Amino acid sequence: MMGTTQSVKACCARAYASDAARYLLGEMFHPGGNALTDELARALDVAAGQIVVDIASGPGTSAHLVAASTGCTVVGIDIVQASAAQSANLHGGVGRVRFVCGDAEALPLTHASVDGVLCECAFCLFPDKRAAAREIARVLRPGARLALSDVTGDPARLPPVLRSLDAHVACLAEALPLDSIAAYLTEAGLTVQRIHRRDDVVVPLLERIGARLRVARLVGGTPLAGASERAEQLLAAAWDAFRAGSIGYGVVIAQR
């Protein structure tokens, strides 16, 4: 057992708001970086003046990027109030971007009120994925799109170390096959338009994390404190699972 729904959410919230997460992941908390965010923004097919929601917006990097590239107003929603406030301060108050504290399973938005939803590397973290999918469908206007990227996985093939709470926080323990993600969205009333694998973006992320862990081991004094050994174990298991085809990365584009 990983714990109750609320305890799991709280653990994820603390982890992604921490200095350790920023040390390991940088400003972009998902594989593919700006290039993949740009790809997802284009898939939304939105125009200046429309509204896009970035669910689990984290440090806010993607929200600002999408606002700059599309001319849209972007609302970043994150379950951690401190994270949302930090995002606003970090990026200097761009007029078309704002951040709201909220839960993906109960979005603080009215029905059919947005022109696009972005969700990067977060669906696997939502304990109630059906509720999150229903909320995405609820807030999208008819004809509007969801652009989702996420870690993919075969839960039955993951070793115990990748089914722990730490692995859940690392987006591994509840990673699903792309078809399963698409099924949740279809059940919620969305029409899946496109599914494709992007396993190519996993290697650079794992390599970057490995490099930062090596620095932490050699010089010390990093925000990881006593967590380096556990992080190295998870990283080694993630490499093994990736090479075995048990985890990967993918994109789903769906329309209301």
Q: Which features would summarize this protein structure in a list?
A:
single chain, 256 residues, alpha/beta, Rossmann fold, seven-stranded mixed sheet, 10 helices, 43% helix, globular
- Terminal CA distance reads 35 Å
Q: CATH-wise, what's the superfamily?
A: Vaccinia Virus protein VP39
The percentage helix is 40-55%
The major pleated sheet works out as: 7 strands, mixed
What's the architecture in CATH terms?
3-Layer(aba) Sandwich
CATH topology: Rossmann fold
Radius of gyration: 17 Å
Order of helices and strands: HHHEHEHEEHEHHEHHE
Class from secondary-structure proportions: alpha/beta
| Overall shape | globular
Tally of separate domains: 1
User: What portion of the residues fall into strands of 2 or more residues?
Assistant: 15-25%
DSSP strand count: 7
Catalogue the unreliable spans: none
State mean pLDDT (0 to 100 scale): 87
Classified by CATH, the class is Alpha Beta
Kindly report the spatial arrangement of strands forming the biggest sheet. Answer: 3-2-1-4-5-7-6
How would you describe the overall organization of this protein?
It contains 10 helices and 7 strands. Helix 4 links the parallel strand 1 (51-55) and strand 2 (73-78). It is of the alpha/beta class. Helix content is 43%, strand content 21%. The protein is globular and about 50 Å long. Strands 3-2-1-4-5-7-6 form a 7-stranded mixed sheet, with helices on both faces. The chain has one domain (5-244): Vaccinia Virus protein VP39 (Rossmann fold, 3-Layer(aba) Sandwich).
